[in-house]
Structure formats: structure tokens, C-alpha cells
């Protein structure tokens, strides 16, 4: 890799970044030392300095990355980026590429509408021939995966996607999402030169996909090219805030990150293109064999996969200049924290991989460390506040006049003022730089005008500051739970906000209890510190109210405008216009619908299964039990087993249609008789109608 | 024919479930088939009815996903092995 021209440039930039971050940290350390209270216990002061140095390095890295991004955006982009290096090509045959969408208990209609939008865009562009689409399901609940199958069949019918859109559900679910992708690769990976990975909430414009393929073709050493997805389709206050932050400040961070990392960037798991052969050869993930948390499947696979790609001598690029790449924010604060719980666990596992994987590139090691620090920073902040309070109480100085690090100092000196100013600059500087950048780039109108942009940024900052203590305490609980290896569920993510309910507040109980205990402790030990603990504690105690307010939907033309509010990209409009698959027979479960719907006259040859022995006997028993007891007589795994065997399902079908009135299936047939007559057209929305809706929405 | 006959009603429901239209023409055809079966002294029960319906009418059946592409087996390489 060192022979590549970009590498010398990257080294220079990284040294500059390191110098800036280290200098700023040393300055901060000196200022802190000046402000430490006299007579403070030595061990506590030393520990405070170590924690402070770590945290100051951490926030400094974010600030200077954004500053790099500002610099490069002002210069009109980075000439070393793949997009700058590769001229736009027109026409030409595209290599075979698979577009894969791993899903697990997702809102399937919304997900497939996203896929349909991308499909239709490629179709309209005339590039569909090169692409196959795979929906790779890990859903376990038969009600969900039966709906997925029905929706996929409906999608195929709607867009004419037969032999181009495929659905596969793994029967043995190993290693979560990375295992799902590996399973696909083992079966069909060799058919495709490239793999475009989508998440369930991803949307990629056809232009973006084709451009990614062109960049890979132009850069044979590139193993992965990652786009910087923009948040879109936010409906709740929380999601709107996240979306605004992503669209307003995000471009600075991603430009800065891309400029520093160059060909050593990281993969974010979706909205990216992979070189299939290289990925298959080098990026398999074994189960971890360490103790506790460090055993079992790798949860956060993407950073590791990019590190493995770099280890194999291939390049990984982040290309933020490719537009048309979208994803969605979690709709509520609770969902965001639930996702964080998963990511926290996954990122902490990287400690083991850092220790056991050799020959990783330094930049990838640093990326893994920053990923870990994303969550470890929270307990460090908590510890920092605790140590500051401890030092304030145990110093010989008079009672503190300000909280934390300046507390207890008799001389609330210029050094303390300077340190506060430096800290505020590091924390708020990227936001200010982003606003300046938007103004200089004449993009303020895209956010509703300069005044509205400023108001939105102030509002977003206030909410972010209020939520920061909640995140700090919650992440600390996540880290503790992860290190103790307490289990976390792995279910589909709530992407629409429709599943918001009171039970989600349960996850706030621990942080609230922790915050309450800290407040009591502070008030008991050092009542003079209580007023300074309140700004941290009160938001945590008020989390349920905050979360409830943030989960409320925002009117379409309400707050925190982003460019997509004024000019809707066609791919988003298409996805929004796509209607869902109407239930065939409302009031009947998916399983009941599957059993009652007449099978094809002859089962396809590949579905004809001659079962012998114990499995056949088990299926026969299941058919018998279900025919007598109805769908409730079977457990979810038993329903799954039946549905996976068309011959058994066919036998059950004929049995239930003979059901007497008053029996479980007889009652289901009565409900069926009461439903309105089914249309013979495929359910969902017709292509022409969808197109019409799209034109209307887009115009 | 008695159109309230449960077997006849079940047959109609099945046709509906299959997405077949159940207008006057279909009902007439179905009644003719019932007549013919009974005239031929065929044993027309719920068990024998369904396969007959598939013979009498062109029922579309469920929409199925197309078979996935031909497998091309490959292996995944793991770091260090």
C-alpha cells in the first residue's frame, strides 16, 4: 500500500492531525493542572489528569476532523478522492453486481418499497441487466417471514422482477448479519464481481450505484467503497433533529474523515460496494473464543471487515461526494439507545480483536479504538465528574464556585477560564464551522434560509446538550452490562416509530436509578455541590418526559428543515409512493392465509420433497394436530417447519378445507367468508399508478 | 339445486379464496358440475370436492417467489486460517 501515491499524502495529513490533537491536549492538561485545587490528594489529581487527557484527545479528534473537512470543502473537495480521480463514464457494460438487503424482523413493506424504488430507478436508467437483487431474511417469527415472502412475490409481480429479485431465508441463523451475508456469498458470491450492501432502511439512487461500480472498475485495488449516507424520511422530533444534524454538520465530518483516512477508511456495514472475491477471501469472521463478552459471534462486523480488507493489502475508501445515498434515523430516543446498546457491545468486543489480530493497519486500529471510545467515553466522563467533585470536596480551598474541574479552586483563574473556552470550542466548534461552511457554500436556502438554519442549529444544540447527560449515564450502564456479559436481545429495529410504547421506558430505569443515587450521595457527602450536580442529574430523571416529547411526530413543514424537504430526490419520492401489500384476508393470520390459499396445481419440482422416516412422521403429526386444533395448536418453530415443507402444507390445506363448522378451522373459514371478495389483481399498487403518484409527489 | 347446500357454499368460498371470480357464470358452471356428479352417483364430499374444483376450474394458485439462481459454491476465508 505504501507504494500508492495517495499514501504519502495520507501520512502527511495524519501527522498534521496528530500534531494538532496532541498539542491541544497538552495545552488543556497544562490549563487543568493550573486550575487544580491546592492540597488535592495526589492520586486523585493524577487520575483526573489521565482521564482528562483521554477525553480531551477524543473530543479534539472530532474537532480537528471537522476542521479538516471544512478546509477541504472550502477548497472544492479532495483531489485524492476516488470520485475526483475517476472521470465520469458514459455507457459501457457494467459487470455483474448483486444488490443485497439483509433483513431481520423489519417492517417489510417499507423495506421493500425502498428496494423497489432502487430497482425502478435502475430499470429506468437502462442498467438493470447487470444487477440482481436479494432479500436475505433472518426473521424467525413465521408471521413475519410469511409476510416477507408474500410481499416479495408481490414486489416481483409489481415491477416484473422475476429472475432478478430473489428472497432467501436462512433456516440456521448463525452470526447475525455478517453470517447472513457470508451464507449468501458461499452460495452465489462467485456469480458477482461486486456486492452492493443495503440496510433495511437504506435507499440508493441508481446513479449512486452505477457510480460506485464505475469507481471500483477504475480502482482495481479498492476492496470497499463506502458512501456517506444522508438521513432522510424523518417523521418524529427526534429523527428530525438527527436528520438536521446529519445534513448540516455531517458533511464536514465525512469530508474530514475521508481526507485523513484516504484508502484506509472504514466500512459502515451498508450503502457501500464490496469487491466480492476479495471480501470472500479475506473478510470471514470467526466466532470469538475469549472469555465472557469476547466469545461468540462478532456483533459489529463492519469495522473489522474493513480492517481485514486493509490487512490483505486492499484499499477501503469513504466517498462522501457520491450523493443519492440515504438511510433513516431511529425514530425515537429509546430506539436510538437500544441500537446503542447493541453497538456498544459490538464495539467493546473489538478490544479482543485488537489484541488478537495481527498485521492490522494503524489507521484501522485507530478506527477500532475510536469506535470503542464512542461508548467508553461515557463512563470516563462520569468518572471525570466524580473525581472533580471529590477533589473539590477534599481540597483545602473554600467551597466550590463552579462545578467539576474548576470547583474548589480558590483562584478561579484565567487558566480555568481559558480551559472552559477551549473545551467549549472543541465541543461547539464543529457546529459553528458547519454553519459557516453552509453559508459560504450558499446552501442556507436549502435549510429554509439563514435565520431558520441558525434557529434550527441552536435548537438542535440545546436538545443535544440536554440529552448528553442521559446518553452519558445510559452508555455507562450499557458498558457495564456489556463488560459483565449480561445478555441483550437482538430483534429487528423499530424504524417507523409505530412500535413506541411504554415498555420501552424500562430501559431508562437503570440510568434514572443511578442518577438518583448519585444525587443522594452528592447531597449527603457535599451538599454544596448539589446545585452543580443538578444540570447533569435533572435531564436523566426527566428522561421519560423528554423521550415522550421527542417521539412526537413533527408536522411536514415544521422544524429542522433539510434540503430534501424542499427538493425531494426521486428515489425518496418513489419509496414513499410505493404502497404496501394489503393483507389478502384481513382478520386472518399470515399462516392461516398461507394454509387456506390454494396451492399451485403442481408443486415445482424443486419443492417436491420425498420425506421418509422420522421427519415424515413428525410432519404428519403436525398436520394432524394443526388440522384438529387450529393454528394455535402449533408453536412458531412448528409452523415454520410446516411452511418449509410444501407437501405437508398441501396436506394440511386439503384437511382444513374439510373442517366442520364450529371447529377451529371451521371458525377461520367463517371469518374468511365474511371478508370482502379478493381482487384478482396482485395486491399492492400498480406500476402505472405508482409512477403517477411519483410524478405528482416529485413535482 | 339448493344453493344453501354447505358443500356448494364451501366450493364457492374456495373459488373466492383462489382468486377466481364467483359471478353468475361461475355459479352456473359449478351447479352444473354438482348436478353431473350427483347424476353420476359420484360421492361428492368435502374430501373429494377440492381436487375436483382444481379440475373444473383453472385456479391460479399462490404466487411463489422464483427459484433462486443456480448455486455457485464458494468459500469464505478467515483471518489466520
TrEMBL record, chain A:
Gene Ontology CC annotations of this record: plasma membrane
Membrane topology term: Multi-pass membrane protein
Top-level taxon in the UniProt lineage: Bacteria
Pathway the protein acts in: Glycan metabolism; osmoregulated periplasmic glucan (OPG) biosynthesis
One Gene Ontology molecular-function label: hexosyltransferase activity
Sorted UniProt keywords: Cell inner membrane, Cell membrane, Glycosyltransferase, Membrane, Transferase, Transmembrane, Transmembrane helix
Cited SUPFAM superfamilies: Nucleotide-diphospho-sugar transferases (SSF53448)
Location(s) in or outside the cell: Cell inner membrane
Residue stretches spanning the membrane: 15-32, 44-73, 366-391, 411-433, 508-526, 532-551
Pfam families to which the protein is assigned, alphabetical: Glyco_trans_2_3 (PF13632)
Residue ranges of domain Glycosyltransferase 2-like in the record: 195-389
Family: Belongs to the glycosyltransferase 2 family. OpgH subfamily.
Protein name: Glucans biosynthesis glucosyltransferase H
From TrEMBL, chain B:
Highest taxon above the source species: Bacteria
Name assigned to this protein: Uncharacterized protein
Organism: Marinobacter pelagius
Amino acid at each position: 500500500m505504501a507504494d500508492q501515491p495517495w499514501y504519502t499524502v495520507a501520512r502527511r495529513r495524519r501527522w498534521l492531525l496528530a500534531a494538532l490533537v496532541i498539542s491541544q491536549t497538552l495545552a488543556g492538561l497544562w490549563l487543568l493542572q493550573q486550575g487544580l485545587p491546592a492540597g488535592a490528594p495526589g492520586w486523585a489529581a493524577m487520575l483526573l489528569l489521565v482521564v482528562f487527557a483521554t477525553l480531551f484527545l477524543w473530543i479534539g479528534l472530532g474537532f480537528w476532523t471537522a476542521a479538516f473537512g471544512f478546509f477541504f470543502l472550502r477548497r472544492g473537495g479532495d483531489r485524492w478522492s476516488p470520485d475526483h480521480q475517476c472521470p465520469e463514464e458514459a455507457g459501457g457494460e457494467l459487470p455483474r453486481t448483486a444488490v443485497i438487503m439483509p433483513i431481520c424482523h423489519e417492517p417489510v413493506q417499507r423495506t421493500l418499497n425502498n428496494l423497489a424504488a432502487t430497482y425502478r430507478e435502475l430499470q429506468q436508467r437502462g442498467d438493470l441487466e447487470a444487477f440482481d437483487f436479494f432479500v436475505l431474511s433472518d426473521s424467525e417469527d413465521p408471521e413475519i417471514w410469511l409476510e416477507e415472502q408474500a410481499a416479495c412475490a408481490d414486489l416481483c409481480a409489481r415491477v416484473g422482477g422475476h429472475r432478478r429479485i430473489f428472497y432467501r431465508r436462512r433456516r440456521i441463523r448463525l452470526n447475525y448479519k455478517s453470517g447472513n451475508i457470508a451464507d449468501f456469498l458461499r452460495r452465489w458470491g462467485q456469480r458477482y464481481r461486486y456486492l452492493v450492501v443495503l440496510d433495511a432502511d437504506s435507499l440508493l439512487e441508481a446513479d449512486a450505484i452505477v457510480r460506485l461500480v464505475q469507481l471500483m472498475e477504475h480502482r482495481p485495488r479498492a476492496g470497499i467503497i463506502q458512501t456517506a449516507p444522508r438521513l432522510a424520511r424523518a417523521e418524529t422530533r427526534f429523527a428530525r433533529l438527527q436528520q438536521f444534524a446529519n445534513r448540516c454538520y455531517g458533511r464536514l465530518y465525512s469530508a474530514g474523515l475521508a481526507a485523513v483516512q484516504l484508502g484506509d477508511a472504514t466500512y459502515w456495514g451498508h450503502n457501500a460496494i464490496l469487491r466480492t472475491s476479495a471480501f470472500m477471501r479475506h473478510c470471514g469472521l470467526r466466532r470469538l473464543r475469549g472469555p465472557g463478552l469476547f466469545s461468540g459471534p462478532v456483533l459489529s462486523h463492519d469495522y473489522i471487515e474493513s480492517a481485514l480488507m486493509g490487512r490483505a493489502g486492499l484499499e477501503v475508501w469513504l466517498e462522501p461526494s457520491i450523493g443519492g445515498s440515504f438511510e433513516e434515523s431511529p425514530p425515537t430516543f429509546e430506539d436510538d439507545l437500544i441500537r446503542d446498546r447493541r453497538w456498544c457491545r459490538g464495539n467493546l468486543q473489538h478490544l479482543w480483536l485488537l489484541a488478537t489480530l495481527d498485521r492490522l493497519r494503524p489507521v484501522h486500529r485507530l478506527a477500532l479504538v475510536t469506535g470503542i471510545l464512542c461508548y467508553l467515553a461515557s463512563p470516563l466522563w462520569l468518572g471525570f465528574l466524580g473525581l472533580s467533585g471529590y477533589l473539590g470536596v477534599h481540597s483545602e480551598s473554600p467551597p466550590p464556585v463552579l462545578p467539576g474541574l474548576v470547583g474548589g479552586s480558590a483562584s478561579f483563574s484565567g487558566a480555568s477560564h481559558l480551559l472552559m473556552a477551549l473545551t467549549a470550542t472543541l465541543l461547539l466548534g464543529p457546529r459553528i464551522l458547519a454553519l459557516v461552511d453552509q453559508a459560504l457554500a450558499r446552501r442556507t436556502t436549502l435549510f429554509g434560509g439563514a435565520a431558520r438554519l441558525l434557529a434550527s442549529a441552536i435548537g438542535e444544540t440545546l436538545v443535544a446538550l440536554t440529552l448528553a447527560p442521559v446518553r452519558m449515564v445510559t452508555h455507562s450502564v450499557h458498558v457495564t452490562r456489556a463488560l459483565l456479559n449480561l445478555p441483550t436481545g437482538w430483534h429487528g429495529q423499530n424504524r417507523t416509530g409505530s412500535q413506541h410504547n411504554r415498555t420501552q421506558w424500562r430501559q431508562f430505569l437503570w440510568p434514572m436509578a443511578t442518577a438518583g443515587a448519585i444525587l443522594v450521595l452528592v447531597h449527603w457527602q457535599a451538599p454544596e455541590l448539589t446545585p452543580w450536580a443538578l444540570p447533569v442529574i435533572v435531564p436523566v430523571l426527566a428522561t421519560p418526559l423528554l423521550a415522550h416529547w421527542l417521539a412526537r411526530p413533527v408536522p411536514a413543514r415544521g422544524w429542522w428543515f433539510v434540503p430534501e424537504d424542499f427538493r425531494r430526490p426521486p428515489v425518496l419520492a418513489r419509496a414513499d409512493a410505493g404502497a404496501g401489500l394489503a393483507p389478502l384476508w384481513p382478520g386472518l393470520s399470515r399462516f392461516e392465509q398461507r394454509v387456506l390459499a390454494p396451492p399451485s396445481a403442481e408443486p415445482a419440482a424443486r419443492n417436491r420433497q420425498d420425506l421418509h422416516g422420522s421427519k415424515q412422521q413428525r410432519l404428519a403429526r403436525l398436520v394432524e394436530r394443526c388440522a384438529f386444533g387450529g393454528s394455535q395448536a402449533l408453536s412458531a418453530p412448528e409452523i415454520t417447519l410446516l411452511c418449509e415443507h410444501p407437501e405437508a402444507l398441501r396436506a394440511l390445506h386439503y384437511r382444513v378445507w374439510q373442517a366442520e363448522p364450529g371447529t377451529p378451522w371451521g371458525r377461520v373459514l367463517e371469518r374468511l367468508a365474511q371478508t370482502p371478495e379478493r381482487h384478482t389483481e396482485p395486491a399492492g399498487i400498480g406500476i402505472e399508478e405508482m409512477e403517477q403518484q411519483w410524478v405528482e409527489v416529485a413535482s | 339445486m339448493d344453493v344453501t347446500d354447505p358443500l356448494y357454499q364451501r366450493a364457492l368460498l374456495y373459488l373466492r379464496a383462489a382468486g377466481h371470480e364467483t359471478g353468475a357464470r361461475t355459479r352456473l358452471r359449478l351447479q352444473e358440475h354438482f348436478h353431473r356428479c350427483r347424476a353420476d352417483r359420484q360421492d361428492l364430499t368435502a374430501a373429494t370436492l377440492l381436487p375436483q374444483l382444481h379440475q373444473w376450474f383453472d385456479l391460479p394458485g399462490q404466487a411463489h417467489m422464483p427459484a433462486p439462481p443456480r448455486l455457485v459454491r464458494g468459500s469464505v476465508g478467515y483471518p489466520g486460517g
